[in-house]
Amino acid sequence: AFSPLLYWPITSGQQALNAATVDRLNSFMASGGTILFDTRDQATGGVGGDQTRILQLVSRGLDIPPMEQVGPEHVLTKSFYLMQAFPGRWTGSPVWVEAGGASTNDSVSRVIVGGNDWAAAWAVDELGQPLYATVPGGDRQREMAYRFGVNVVMYTLTGNYKADQVHVPAILERLGQ
Question: 68-82, 130-144, 153-167: which has the highest mean pLDDT?
């Protein structure tokens, strides 16, 4: 079964990947897959810390393109929900995508990187109760974390359809008839 999205939380015990795994991941990305790396370190100051070093170790050998911070017009900000921030358990970490828009895979970035610990915001126990606090925004921040998850999935599944607005006038005209 093909899954177009891998969520990869960076943890302290991760080691460098072996050559076979690097080859499989590069093949996955080359055939349309996206890896969402979550350094989960926004609460500790983010970039430059231990989690960033572990990400560099884990990603060594992967075909990772040059990256840029998600801007306000990027498809990820409007793939389903309109969003300008992407909180998880923590908030404030920038999200990075392939610079200049991907030239393949329907303009979907092969790699997305952030540090807001999204899986912790999404995690619930057997009764559906959150396992971790979302700081500082509480329930509203958790809702926005869910929305970010939906946007990432929609982005990886549908590509740049939200970026192609050339047909909007014709669609609106047909809807009015």
Answer: 130-144
